Amino acid sequence: MRKKNIKGLTEAELREVLTSLGVEKYRARQIMEWIYARGAGDFSAMTNLAKPLREKLSEHLYIAQLREVTRQISHKDGTVKFLFALEDGQTVETVLLRHDYGHSVCVSTQVGCAMGCSFCASGLGGLVRNLTAGEIIDQVLAVQNYLKQEDQRVSSVVIMGSGEPLTNYDNVLRFMALLHWPYGLNIGYRNMTVSTAGVVPGIDRLSMENLPITLSISLHAPHDQLRSALMPVNHTYPIAVLLAACDRYTARTNRRITYEYSLIAGVNDRAEHARQLANLLAGRLCHVNLILVNAVVERGYEPPAAERVGKFQDILKRRGIETTVRKEMGGDIDAACGQLRRRILSAEANH
């Protein structure tokens, strides 16, 4: 008989599984507390359960675990990038970001990515598959376990790693609910950020969930011609359609939207682009996060000089657009989405 993985099940779903095995429903919370609050990966660790019960559970069920393939630690700022192997041998990246206000985890939601953005390493090999909710939350649990040695914990989560979250909608929503589960990691929705390349049906669907999360839009260009060249998703959901969905989201949730803008030298970093972006976002409840593009060898893009970044930011600020420049983190490691996985896969292929 094939064992069932319970990582990623809700409390209600685990109760049903336990009932089918003749186990009391109330055990579901105990088991989930061991998994999500204490990081247990095996029933044998659950010492408040009788030994015969632990043996019965082990006979029918198991708790899937990620396997760490490698990690990189930045000597500049302590950023840690993990490469984890899944049960089927596929790999995903997860990043621990250290801030003055706490520790944040950037999780992946897919193996690879179908978006094909021209500045990103995640999509170089295309989309392989969606991650389950269990595989996504396992990334947070693995980082939480890593932080235990420092007597620290994860305080926020950004869903900005490899993959497009809104094309794996159900698993991402389930992941956030598990993350928020009060007897586990108990991370508030206000400490979660979902980033999308601009999948309009997903934005509309998310606006109806009534969750106080932060929605982040990967914009990266102020007009359709340039954005379509950088992000193929713009052919399906051009800027006017995307911004209309963002306006609906703000109207329904009263939440400010963050617009991500990766500055690429000689491509989208001119003063003209800044003025066009300011016109586009004028009057909207928003924040612009300027990002220095990561130099991905296969893409050939480079970040602009600091002076150019400052001028771009000043133009937006003078037009009343709240703007920050994201602090570069992990610059001395493969910090960009997909870089570490791509390098390992390339090395294996060459070998």
Describe this structure in words.
By secondary structure, this protein is α/β, with parallel strands linked by helices. The protein folds into two domains: 4-62, DNA polymerase, domain 1 (Orthogonal Bundle); 67-350, TIM Barrel, CATH 3.20.20.70. Helix content is 37%, strand content 20%. The protein contains twelve helices and 14 strands. The chain has helices spanning 11-20, 27-37, 51-60, 133-148, 169-180, 200-207, 224-230, 233-236, 239-253, 271-281, 306-318, 339-350; strands spanning 4-5, 61-62, 67-73, 80-85, 91-99, 102-106, 110-112, 127-130, 154-159, 192-196, 214-218, 257-263, 286-292, 323-325. Strands 3-4-5-6-9-10-11-12-13-14 form a ten-stranded mixed sheet, covered by helices on one side. Strands 1-2 form a two-stranded parallel sheet. Strands 7-8 form a two-stranded antiparallel sheet. Strand 12 (257-263), helix 10 and strand 13 form a beta-alpha-beta unit.
Please give a quick description of this structure.
The chain has 351 residues and is an alpha/beta fold. It is 37% helix and 20% strand. The longest helix has 16 residues, at 133-148.
Strand order of the largest sheet: 3-4-5-6-9-10-11-12-13-14
- By DSSP, the count of extended strands is 14
Structural class label? alpha/beta
The mean pLDDT is 93
Taken in chain order, the helices and strands follow as EHHHEEEEEEEHEHEHEHHHEHEHEH
**Helical segment count:** 12
Helix % is: 25-40%
Give the assembly state of these chains: single chain
CATH C-level class of the largest domain is Alpha Beta
Termini gap: 38 Å
DSSP strand content: 15-25%
* CATH topology call of the largest domain: TIM Barrel
**Architecture of the largest domain, according to CATH?**
Alpha-Beta Barrel
